[in-house]
Amino acid sequence: MRFIDILNTASGSLYRNKSRSLLTILGVVIGIASVILMLSIGQGAERFILNQVADLGADLVFIEPSSGDPTSGPPNPFVEQTITLDDAKAVGKSGLFSYVSMSLVTTLPVSYMEENDFVQSVGTNEQQIKIYPADLKYGRMFDEDDVDSYSKVVVLGNELSEDLFGANNPVGNKIKIKSKSFRVIGVFDKQGSRFFQNLDKRILMPITTMQRDVMGVDYVNYLEMKAKGDVNKAKEEVGFILRDTHNIINPEGLQEKDDFFVSSQEDATEIVGTVGGVLTVLLASIASISLVVGGIGIMNIMLVSVTERTREIGLRKAVGATNSEVLKQFLIEAILLTVGGGFIGVFVGAILSIGVGVILQNFFVESWSVVIPPNAIVLSVVVSTLVGVLFGYYPAKRASKLNPIDALRYE
Fold first, then answer.
1. Which residues are registered as beta bridge partners of 139?
2. pTM of the shown model
3. 196 pLDDT more than 70
4. CA within 20 to 30 Å of 210's CA: 243, 326, 345, 396, which one?
């Protein structure tokens, strides 16, 4: 029997059992669509964060506390907070950076009259707006005098200002943060998001006020600096400065001996790429479980099909069909089911990826990129074919081994 005849016989058998065939490929469709959707989300998230890092500028340097374990990498919220304002002053005096800022971040209850909210609050200095340029809609940014005098003043994000004051100019009004009164001196224009944080719904206040009057701490979460010259040289030099202020003897510059971590945009890009790759693999691995389930479903249906068609198999073998031809017929049926399901799954996965991307763009992250990875499409088709071969072989082999006399007697 020619291959084309076997193919026609297999496809005809599937067509005669349309409902069962469609239900069989459903598991493959769900599996392939899930893999493509998860890869799309993973790569979209990686691209979004990489774009955010690139927008920061190649001349930025960051300092944050570290556990001393070079394999753990930042950020790690469980390490001892070791960065202080003294570090910021020492770094500022080095002449390596045009601007030095810091951030102390927490979430606090905020209220104005009957309006209440719970928002991210950032303690920083006047140079923050130089490192991350932003326009002001009303008022001004706090200055060095406000920082030195522990002034209870705040600058509001655009969305937070509208939530508390509506369309009115809030400058001069007082809001309550943890039952303490703060005077509004400015409102930012719309900024959007950065690293999944809504910049329009946060509060900025002088770092000294945040430390003493709000949180009661003497540390900061991290420092941000804008390098004047070579970034790598600045990173190396600032390491020596902090070892001096922290009384660390580490002339070799070994990370495991430091209680801080110095990084740049290039380092952040590398970390994001690694994390994004791991995230994508993890999501795809979870989604691929449904492919295995779909494959098992195909095996079960094919075994049922062999049982139901025992007399048919016996008749075919009685008129001259060989074991090989019967094996090929049932194997081709399984492959047709999985490949058909694979192509449908690719289409469904692409539509879902576009839909999820559009929803994220319109309602959550405006700069989200819709990504349909071509390698995922090729991989899905290949994997679906392999699923058909692997899970279809046993039922096909079982069918080919049936004794024609026993098969014809089967009721």
1. 186
2. 0.65
3. no
4. 243
